Amino acid sequence: MVYDLDARAWTDEQLNAINTRRGNLLVAAAAGAGKTAVLVERIIRRLTDPVAPISLENLLVVTFTEAAAAEMRQRIGAALEGAAARRPDDENLRRQLLLLNRAHISTIHSFCLWVLRTYFYRLDLDPAFKVMDPAEADLLQLEVMDQVLEECFTAEPEGGPITELADSLGGRGDANLVDLVLKVWRFTRSLPRPETWLAETATCCYSGEGPLEKQIWYPEVKEALNLRLEEAEYYLRRAAKLAAGPGGPAVYLDNLIKEEELIKELRKELDLLSWGEVCKRLISFTFGRLKPVRDPGVDAIVKERAVGYRERAKKLICGIQEELCRDGAAVKAELGRAAGMARALVEVVRRFDGAYAKIKRDRGLVDFGDLEHFCLKILMDQGAPPGELRPSDVALELRRRFDEVLVDEYQDINGVQDAILTLVSRQGTPDDANLFMVGDVKQSIYRFRLANPELFLDKYHDYPEREGGPNRRIILKANFRSRKAIVDGVNFVFRQLFSRHVGELEYDDDAALICRANYPEHPEAAPAAIEAYILEGRWDGENTAEFNEADDGYEDGSTDLEDLTALEREARLVARRVKQLVHGTSEKPGPEFKVWDAEGKTYRDLSYRDIVILLRATRDRAAVFLEALQQEGIPAHVDAGGSYFAAVEVETVLSLLRIIDNPHQDIPLAAVLRSPIVGLTAADLARIRLAAPEKDFFTAVIEAAGTAANGELAARLGNFLTRLERWRTMARRRPLPDVLWELYRETGYLEFVGGLPGGARRQANLRALLDRARQFEGFARHGLFRFLRFIERLRETEGDLEAPSPLGENENVVRIMSIHKAKGLEFPVVIVADLGKGFNFKDLSGDVLLHGRLGLNPLCFDMENGIKYPTLPYLAAAHRLRLEALSEELRILYVAMTRAREKLILTGTARNLPQRAESWSAGLLEKAERLSPMLTSRARCPLDWLMYALARHSSATPIRMLAEIQESRLLDDPSCWDVKVITAAALSEMAGREAISLKQEKTSQRAIADTEGTPLIDREKLRREVDRRLSWVYPWRPLNGLPVKLAVTELKRRFDVFNDGETPTRIQVNRFNRRPMFLQAGSGLTAAERGTVTHMVIQHVDLGRPVTAESLGELLQEMVTNEILTPEQAAAVDTGALISFFTGDLGRRLLARPEKVKRELPFSLAVPVAELYPALKSEVSTGETILVQGIIDCLVDEEDGFLLLDFKTGRLPADPLAEYREQIELYARAVSFIFRRRVKEAYVYYLDGGTGFKVI
């Protein structure tokens, strides 16, 4: 390639970015703006400057990935070769070419490694240190965590803070605590001063000092409250609009307008009121009773919709009252509890950090995080005051060395990396500053890797565009990639969606794209319109779940659309559209349009390799699209991680390694025996099982191999056992890579999979496993067991080995990949699919939320009552993290839509389409072009955002028709859209047209067709056999609908027993998404709630003292003080009924033996199915049981047996004994089984009537 410096026509903005020499430069380059070309051109011009050339050895070029660094090096080399070809006598160019391989063009980690290798003596670091693979580091961290926790638990007394922390987190063993500690520790590694952050987050955020309004988290709580109030106001406004419109319930208007004004007034005064005053205003807010509608002209549907909107507003206000409203004293008490957990957690993190650092130092190891932090330690003056970033003498030396520091993808760096780049670059005067940063914050999509786009945004807002100061911002907004139709569509959507709240940047004129791509006109070029397909997810007869997994097991492409899940239906639609694009229709065969070939400078037919399908998440979803394409005869390839370990060939080899390590593992052993390595059938496995039914499967294999009656099977098993023993011996003596290669060679499995469909990829998968084994052999500690543990850890953490792709760039296949993988790429035709997939907010519901500015925010754990609930700082962090997650998702959508060069197609599925369309039309009520943050933050999936914007376009009539919107405020925009709404009925009609035949008949014919060419088979007999098998009915089908376990109260309902005062089975609540209701003020109690409260009081009565009105009053007051009951609940307790019980015969028996009384005793009991369902045939139910669970109110251990009591509240039934006999007898049966003692007496005691009925 010959590089011509003058071959490209640069824009004025690009030339500014290329030629400006003074000051630090931030280049904000939009999608398709040619930022890499600008960066390379700037480097080449600086190297070839005729007045003041610089040398490659005096440049530091930092990229985000190794691949990007390699591409950058290749481009610079090509440019230098081109320049040298034109100027063969230029010695400087030849010298730069020689320096190319030594130049600092690398990732930030590679640069840090160079600093450590060069200046290792500045730290207590072995010069021969080894950089651990991330997987090796992960394993070592787990080992260190085990040691640290063992030391912590041993050192502290029983019930100490760390033990309490572990108990609070729950889970199996200490797994939750281990995961949380590592999560916090890894988060701190992205910060330049992790120790400082830990110290501050353990004290400042939970000090409880000063007014709440001055706390760092208070603005976030206020913003979250404001957004929710605004949403409630919006619902009331829509309700009022309906009430005032034709057919509307006008009598509702007074209430609706008054309620809307009250919310609006409160929003205006949020900044003026204290938190206590805000809470008082919120708690006093009530919704009045609506006036009855007597006007016959009122449309019932309009009325229902108006009431529905008001109910949504009420739900929001009630949610705010329950979740946020608590006084200052309560907040500070909660913060005190949370502070203890935070301090304990920080202590464990610090201990882990110290222990991990020591073991790495002792073994001469560093991990990737160490590369950055050790580098920062070398570059930073350790004597500088806290918070000051002062360069060390090494940093000053590097500043003198590097004439310029250039950073690509600056939007994706974190705080540590930014500090390093700041220290090695010169700051100060315009003539001295030398940091060049290029990136696009709208494409910052790596927050999950702890990238911090705020670093870019701070400079973007602070740096002026004018020249002259030490810092300058240059904006590149010309797009050289996409056709004007795509650019217009992207601008139309994101002008409305991006804001400081969601997106973290306003999509103004500086951010909007300008089309500069030059596509020559052609009559068969791609049509202008962007296509948007919205599919209805609900189906006639389909349940309300989004994905109703209906699978008829057929794989030949004949599956009818009615049987497909929502995702499968969307994939089938995409596949058909791809087929139309490439092959046309019966009316118009051939490619739908031609695409521009930049290399050939001509238009050519569209082919499969021009098309890519982009998905937000590919795991378990890309395979659905792949199958749909293949069913249409379309060659396709999934370029996605996360599927490597799911590959059959990889799982088979791993199963073989597992049984070499330990053959007494049933599932891996059966997998290997069934695989082509051994080749047994399912019937063979059954015969092996029969050889030793009660023993593990490996023992059964040994016994089956020694049974002469098994004949050929015994011989094959004997051969396998001989080989297995040899392989186990080999694994103990030889390195793992040698063992794995010998397994490939001896079994022939590598060659075998090469002959299967997709053989090249399967072989590449197995070679990748071998490469990983070779890499693992270089770990500090290795071996087969440790390798298998490493693999399992990768699975548990949802990690994966990258599935290698043998696919060439020019292979004619449709590519399916994640949006993240597509970043930096471009394609003629882009289909962004699965836009209806909901956002993943699972990180916002953990026990602890982490934020760089807001710190460490745990839930409040109330161990005494066994509950946990969010504090205000936790809610503040959740709000901020949610907005940041939404911002990232919006940027991901932007990246996806800007990959297209000539054609963009968008698809998504939505349930309850009319209701969703009504929600999408919300933007039609807004006057500004940019949609309000209240609306954009409500989105649950990318399709919501897209439809919020498109609903305001003239082409989106189908959306507005579904929403029944008559009046609308549309935006005047040049973008062109083709919006298609495909309802369930339309899909059903499509399926009817394409139905070929009955499935059972087709399957029968297919099975018989497989026997063509085999004349000895009786075809009629075979047909009868196929029909017999297809007609087979599962004999235990009657058991399918039975529950595995039942609560006793369900049994009571099953026997047609009902009691208004009885509550459902009482279980201890372990988790609340909001503050528990019994800690809040509420309205009157229902009968069931009064029953629950009464049971709670009986559970807490002190049986060691007389039960009097005074003692019960003290108990109730104590329960209110401890927030077990609310004052309202305490007032509802009938203390007279309790005194009557405890002064009666039964109550005195409890008081006489207080130490022998058990209250609220849970139990589980296996009951034969035949006993619960006598109508079932005995041959079906014999031997089957159902687990029955319940809670016994009171059990008294007396000398000659148990006294069992069951308390009831509410009305007295006509026949109490018949009502509860089954339940009480089951209780007695459970007690006798558990304690091996009989229940001598059992009573049902009605507290309201003061009457006990003896059941036993």
UniProtKB/TrEMBL annotation:
UniProt keyword annotations, A-Z: ATP-binding, DNA damage, DNA repair, DNA-binding, Exonuclease, Helicase, Hydrolase, Isomerase, Nuclease, Nucleotide-binding
Domain UvrD-like helicase ATP-binding: 8-483
GO molecular function list: 3'-5' DNA helicase activity; 3'-5' exonuclease activity; ATP binding; ATP hydrolysis activity; double-stranded DNA binding
Keyword Lipid metabolism among record annotations: no
Catalytic activity: Couples ATP hydrolysis with the unwinding of duplex DNA by translocating in the 3'-5' direction; ATP + H2O = ADP + phosphate + H(+)
Cofactor (UniProt): Mg(2+)
BP GO terms, sorted: double-strand break repair via homologous recombination
Ranges of residues in domain UvrD-like helicase C-terminal: 520-824
GO cellular component: cytosol; DNA helicase complex
One Pfam family from the record: PDDEXK_1
Residues the record lists as binding ATP: A29, A30, A31, G32, A33, G34, K35, T36
Keyword Heme: no
Enzyme Commission no: 3.1.-.-, 5.6.2.4
InterPro entries hit by this protein: AddA (IPR014152), DNA_helicase_UvrD-like_C (IPR014017), DNA_helicase_UvrD/REP (IPR000212), P-loop_NTPase (IPR027417), PDDEXK-like_dom_sf (IPR011604), PDDEXK_AddAB-type (IPR038726), Restrct_endonuc-II-like (IPR011335), UvrD-like_ATP-bd (IPR014016)
Stated family: Belongs to the helicase family. AddA subfamily.
Function per UniProt: The heterodimer acts as both an ATP-dependent DNA helicase and an ATP-dependent, dual-direction single-stranded exonuclease. Recognizes the chi site generating a DNA molecule suitable for the initiation of homologous recombination. The AddA nuclease domain is required for chi fragment generation; this subunit has the helicase and 3' -> 5' nuclease activities.
Assembly with partners or alone: Heterodimer of AddA and AddB/RexB.
Protein name: ATP-dependent helicase/nuclease subunit A
Organism listed in the record: Neomoorella humiferrea
Gene giving rise to this polypeptide: addA
